[in-house]
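Recall that a protein's primary structure is simply its ordered list of amino acids. Everything else, from secondary elements to tertiary packing, is in principle encoded there. The following example makes that idea concrete.
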Amino acid sequence: MNERAWERVGAASGLAAAVLLLASLFLNPSAPTGEEPVLTFFYVAANRVTVSLAALFGTLAAVVFLWFVGHLRHLLQRAEGGAEAFSPVVFAAGVVLSTTTMLSMLPVIALASMTRDVTTASQSSVFVLSELHRLSLGPVGLLVALFASTTGAAMVRRELLAPWVGWFGFVVALIGLIAGVTAFFLTGPFVMVAAAVTGVVFAVWIGDAAVLMLYRPEVDRVRTGGTAFAH
């Protein structure tokens, strides 16, 4: 398989991650907040299948996203000519974002499993699990901001794709930053809505970038002198 074909595989992984993330977000409507453990328990019990599917799709999105992050590192290393300007941060932020997202799914999976047997549940355990999931949204939002801002900066510098995709990434980073910071100080519906909005715009951004990479692999831009190399 030549490099152009491998680039298409890498781009396809980004598109798959975006689709899986959107499916996860739209499968699971907003649940009651962690301050209402009884309502949370009955919500999960009534929607156990969709809640479990949403957690599964979210986890799969994080796993597939790892391939896309590795693909981005390869592209940026080539564009930067060994200068290692943005590629290490993009790679590290992407890996930690993926890992943190997978960990944030564990309390949801535990809640869904707990509803199978009412005798194993208590208000305190439901509260702790739902709060762990809510609190994990803070680090996820901040990691989205780091990944989107550094990747966006590389795009604006024409090391990858087009500048407009990079500016879109800055918008995603700002939304992620707001959602991440507020998750540390606020509770209630606003935190969940902010996290959902962050997830949607992040998925759309990744999906747009992946489609552009599929349409025109970065190796074609390099051959035509379209990439600005950093030294």
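Residues 3-219 form one domain. The two ends are 30 Å apart (CA to CA).
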